[in-house]
Design brief:
Layout lengths: L5 H39 L1 H31 L4 H30 L4
Helix pairs in contact: 1-2, 2-3
């Protein structure tokens, strides 16, 4: 392996900052959009609100965990742009899947018993 130059470290750091900003903006937009969508649907019908809350759990969880992955990648990875991007994407997919599983558990098991 060749030694990493200062220019390469600056480029990787700059990419990490861009990734942080981008994932933060996307998460806020997804959160506001899904919240408005659930509120609008729940205003018209409770079952529609439950359905849209279930549908919006994956994007919200993916956006939040992708942002957390971007933070972790920015502070933990110093020399690879690909690793920073991969951490953010994998964290988003896993976080979205976990959020969807938790929403399914709540709406299919706990919510009917209330």
């Amino acid at each position: 392996m060749s030694p990493v130059t200062t220019e390469e470290l600056v480029r990787v750091r700059r990419f990490g900052l861009y990734l942080l900003r981008t994932t933060a903006v996307v998460f806020v937009l997804v959160l506001v959009t899904c919240t408005a969508w659930v509120g609008y649907s729940a205003y018209h019908s409770e079952s529609a609100g439950v359905r849209t809350a279930f549908y919006s759990s994956f994007p919200i969880g993916a956006g939040f965990c992708s942002f957390l992955g971007a933070i972790a990648g920015h502070y933990l990875v110093k020399t690879s742009v690909t690793a920073k991007l991969l951490i953010s994407v994998v964290a988003g997919v896993v976080g979205g899947a976990c959020s969807l599983a938790m929403a399914a558990l709540f709406f299919l098991v706990i919510f009917p018993a209330l």
